[in-house]
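Re: that chain you flagged

S.,

Sorry for the slow reply, it's been a week of failed gels. I finally had a moment to sit down with the sequence you sent. For the record, here it is as I used it:
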Amino acid sequence: MRIGRALLVGLLLVCADGTAFQIGPLGPKLEAKLTNETESSLARASRTLGLLVKKPVHEEITQIGFDCPVDLTNIFNDDTCAGSDVGFAHPFIMHGVRWNDVPPFRLNAGQGAQCKKYGFISAPACNAEQTVRFSTQPDCWLCLFFDEQKAASTKKISGCQTGAEYVRGTLMTRSHFGDLQFLHSMANAEGVSAPETRQKILDWVQFAWMVFDGDFGPETKLKDITIPTIAEHFGCSDWTVSDIYILGRKDTLIRRLPDIAFGSILHTVQDSFAAGHTARGIAPLGSVCADTALLRAPGPIVEFHAYGQQDGSKHDEQDAREAMASSAADVSGAIAATRALFELWNANAKWTYAKSTIHCIFSLADDHKESSAGDQFRRVSLP
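Prediction finished late last night. Pasting the structure tokens below so you have them in one place:
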């Protein structure tokens, strides 16, 4: 969901379900080496399951934001920076940019028992003893995705909340359909006030920034973190910081956890400029973010959209490279914000300094509204 949502990991399902600015499923070569997720195996799984590989738009925005030279006036034809391995953004940061759409996760008790391998009648698709990634358990990954997408039409996908109206989701499905949609700068449901969604996003970015800055170490328990949104959505778990970002790959990625956390911030920020995720107004001419010289003020957010009642194909249209290249999406704002955060990353800025820029990026319009699907994205019910 989001500047990569339909992607679902940089992929677009043929049945056209949505994401945000899209992400390419084939990550940097170094990432593949360190995670044992090879391009060939992922490409093969994508073809087998009927997936169409999409353009890596999140990656391109990140590379440009990290000073990859490109002619922005002719970006439709200039794809110089379109790739994970262009080299301007660090591959571990790129790993984090991809994380929001494809976080690693373990199955909850009883989950995945109904899932069968593609093309087989009875072969189980899910190995509950292993971390689930698209590249390592693609049949299981997609089965869970589709099952919980369907469940989300009548139930709420959550991690800590319980009751008849809730279904316990995985980290992946919670971010796409459930209580963690703020990872993609979207509201968790329709009718949620803009200040409430904004605060969840700010809390999340604060948490991730403090991981980047080392205030929260790899073994810090999420239930011990007092940031309200982290406590609400993760406080019932025994997960550590490393569990959510690099589950199953602590041996190879533990030292790069700060860069991965920073990359995940970039994804959230970039998604806030995708039309399927938010509606922004127009910033006053010449306005700049207070307390920082890094960024001209972006248009204030009028509404955070909610994905539940959106038409996936309409959402996805605004996440594709074609939309980015034609300026249908506010790619200039996403690039400018990425560049500002790159400067903060380069300076090893503390959250106390960086928060002014983040707060400005997520400024609300005076006439902000409660969340909805957005008129142009709403799913039309057949008579």
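What I noticed first: The chain has one domain: 11-104+181-361.

Talk soon,
D.
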